[in-house]
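Worked problem 6 (solution included).
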Amino acid sequence: MSRLKRWVMGICLVCCLISLSACKPAIDSSAGSSNGASMVHLTLWQGVNPPPNRDVLQKLVNKFNQRHPNIQVESLYVGQGDQQMPKILAAVVGNAPPNLLWFAPMITGQLVELEAIKPLEEWLATTQVKDQIDPALFEAMQWEDRIWSVPFGVNNVGIFYRPSLFKSAGVTQLPQTWQELRQVARQLTIATKQQHGMILPLGKGEWTVFTWLPFMWSGGGELMTNGAVQIDNAGAIAALHLWQDLITDGSAILSQPERGYELDGFLAGKVAMQLTGPWTLGQLQATDVDYAVMPIPIDARPATSIGGENLFVFKTTPTEEQASLVFAEYVLSEEFQTEWAIGTGYLPVNLSSRQSLAYRQFAEQQPAVDVFLKQAEFGRSRPIFPGYSRISENLGRAIETVLLQKNTPEAALKTSQKRLELSLTP
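Solution. The predicted structure is:
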């Protein structure tokens, strides 16, 4: 048994197995069909956020269910990524996994080691949608020469800002460098209005790491050097110093712990800039708030984090696996991707969808989409090998201690590097 399997069994089984019945509720096998015996019920676990995006997903799931009366998919929100992890691992160990999982591809290595998911390359080769998938996305689908997931939606990190607040503060040029970002953030900070130039995510979870990595890459840093993990690198130190400087200047405020994705302060005009991505467009479109997007300011080179979630098919029964693949092909279709992108702001993974009239009209009305599409050229993906969760955890700890002014960037990363090396030692 691998070390990962022993760890999962020792931790997740004890802590989370007792909650599995709540995560995978029983469904009346005869519901919605005159022939209950032929009905295949599938569960899709997802952490789609913000809530309006879940409504878009539900409409698309409903459309699939109407077209496939013998396959009924139930979409279940099971929390954000960090909340889902113990549930997913416990479900696998307890032999009660969902049929389908919407999750960031960095979990791939862990699920492969646990022999929990179905390889998809043979099935994908027989579909009509394989050639429509953005070629840049295959890196996050593959591990050790096999395809383990398909993309559900793609995005990257940018900075949303409030043009009205920029105008009131006399800011006429968008920051293009780190130094300019720091200067503009100071200019946008107005104590009498309890207004800050920027909000930074507090916490050691994946959201914090995901939104910080563009700065590390822009600073010239790499997570891997000569095949070895090296989070204690010059680019990481520079990126942490930038975030620390924004806090020290008083021009950045911290989010609530592990809730850096929430837009409350931005919508209320209390912060002028926020790190987030195109998935927030659906939420912003429903408000009267003015907003626009800028690329991540540059230090040594342009960079952003490629994000988005992939769809995994768990090993269950042959019948359920086959039905899951029918749903997976629907997710990759031009129709699904166009409606999903327009409704949520995610970028389509289907190339035909990007060229469709409906999406081109949407993009013309949403200048922010063009920013993310152009910035994707400089996007970097997070590793999907089994040890990524430990890299993320230790980076998150370093970032958190620095933002809380408990450590210097150099010391925090040095400590995290040592801890990481111990955790990755066989």
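Discussion: The chain is about 45% helix and 15% strand.
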